[in-house]
Amino acid sequence: MEMLRSDVDPLEAVKFMRTHLTPFDSFYLEEIKNLAGCVLWIGRLDESPYADLLSSAKWDKLAEDFTEKFLGLLGQSTTCPLTTVCNVGARNLPLLSSLRRIVGDKEEWESIESLPLYNETDAGEECNFHSVFVCKECREMATDVNPPILLPCHHTLCWNTVTRLSWGGARLFMCPFCCHEIHLNQCLQLHV
Ligand SMILES: [Zn+2]
Ligand SMILES: [Zn+2]
């Protein structure tokens, strides 16, 4: 783009494209074609049909994308972790304070591993990094030790519920949603 905006020799620009962009033409053919069209407008790109390539909004978006990809490669978040914690905490303060009223000031508050009520805390869509499965039968959220299980009728339950209903695989059981009769070995573990 820098070359196209300057008054570089068009042949230089074509040479650059051949060397550096041709290897990507199977993925970005349309974009490369547009850039090739730009060569005809070198030095007066802002008057060309491709003028929107210069729009500052596009460049800002590009800078954001690069930052996001770069931080992704480093395994880091694009937002400051402290900001995220404050935002999620502030959003959930009403829920946490009502739970505190229920639990009171008992010592258990510090030692409990999960909240005493079934109540999903809402971290906002921007913080949903993984899909979440909640079993409709026991309302437990799936974990590594209690994964979602796909039944042959295409309904899904958690592992604990499936083993409970099937007496550990000893009996046939009925799907709670459609009454399909199922044996444990017809079920398939899902990964979320
Ligand atoms: Zn369950
Ligand atoms: Zn079913």
Give a written overview of the molecule.
The protein is mostly helical and 192 residues long. The protein folds into 3 domains: 2-73, no CATH class; 81-127, no CATH class; 131-192, Zinc/RING finger domain, C3HC4 (zinc finger) (Herpes Virus-1, 2-Layer Sandwich), CATH 3.30.40.10. The protein has helices spanning 2-5, 10-20, 25-38, 56-73, 81-103, 108-111, 159-165; strands spanning 148-150, 156-158, 173-174, 181-182, 188-189. The mean pLDDT is 87. The chain starts with a helix and ends with a strand. The strands form 2 sheets. Strands 2-1-5 form a 3-stranded antiparallel sheet. The relative contact order is 0.07. Bound molecules: zinc ion (2 copies). The site of one zinc ion has 8 residues, from strand 2 and helix 7. It comes from Carex littledalei.
Task: Pick out its properties.
192 residues; ubiquitin-protein transferase activity; mainly alpha; Herpes Virus-1; 3 domains; two-stranded antiparallel ribbon; Protein RMD5 A; binds zinc ion; CTLH/CRA
Shape: elongated
Q: What is the tally of beta strands?
A: 5
Q: Beta-strand level of the residues, as a percent range?
A: 5-15%
Low-confidence stretches: none
Number of domain modules? 3
Ligand set = zinc ion
Organism: Carex littledalei
Keywords: Metal-binding, Zinc, Zinc-finger
Domain RING-type: 135-178
Protein name: Protein RMD5 A
SSE topology sketch:
Blueprint: H1 2-5, H2 10-20, H3 25-38, H4 56-73, H5 81-103, H6 108-111, E1 148-150, E2 156-158, H7 159-165, E3 173-174, E4 181-182, E5 188-189
